[in-house]
Specification:
By secondary structure, the chain is an all-alpha fold. The protein folds into 2 domains: 230 residues, no CATH class; 75 residues, no CATH class. Helices cover 68% and strands 0% of the residues. The protein has 14 helices and no strands. Helix 1 runs antiparallel to helix 2, helix 2 packs across helix 6 and helix 13 packs across helix 14. The longest helix has 26 residues. It is globular.
Amino acid sequence: MPVQRSLSGRPRLDVIDLARGAALVAMAIYHFAWDLEFFGYAPPGMTAEGGWKLFARCIASSFLFLVGVSLWLAHGRAVRWRPFGKRLAMVAAAAAAISLATWLAVPGGFIFFGILHQIALASLIGLAFLRLPAWATLIAAVLVAAAPHFLRSAVFDHPALWWVGLSSANPRSNDYVPLFPWFSAVLTGIAAARIAERAGLFARLGRISLSGWSRPLRWAGRHSLAIYLVHQPLLIGALWLFAQVAPAGDAQREAQFTRACAVQCEATRDASFCEYYCLCVLGDLAAEGLFDAVYAGTQGPQATARLHEIVSACTFEAETPSAREEGQ
């Protein structure tokens, strides 16, 4: 029977498409849980802590690892600039579309550097590692993963440098996948693919015949970009229609806001700091009539700028004992 081949001339590996399709299913499950939280059917902050948070990181890591593997399979022997440029342009255009759509829909948490932005940049930088030995690429992966623990600085706090991932505090975004530490997953995929090729693993994987049950997942894996772009609008649209028939119960929005704030804050700060900080932000927003817009994520540029000022002031108060006493 004829063998389906990729652009690189290698036999197409069904197991790679299957793995990418499985990652897409996991991503859809996580996004559906996030949507349930957004519409009020799940507790606020649920997907930002515990098992859900670990689940999200595993999904992102698996996607980026597969990006590294695919980059080496397609261009490890020689970079095919035309297909590479075409694919890069498609991913970059999709990333720009995501940024524009989320800026219009949720300006307070729009996606300025999410998973697609990371894939586009990592694919470009990853070319420099295709000729390096696997051990050198793995060392680079470790250094990239460790960088946020040692190299964070206020120098990177300017919004133009948020994509680097080394600012003193992570900016607010519904999907934030900066260069450091996430590029390490791509580098690990490149190194793993190089090792697998030398060990003859890809040749063995190419001889595996998968059963019919995996065909939908393999098809999804071959069209991962299109599915990524359409799945979330479909999920949100379906939940919105459901909410018109059976809306979620009205919980106290202040409690939801405080809970979600505490969950995000306690990822980097202690509980006492976060308790004061979140109540400070909530109180200032309510006093200035900005709470409704911020809660809904529909605040305009002026309100967003004011929100940043409130966050800075409350951070200072929560960090400074004398300021905290005056605030109380």
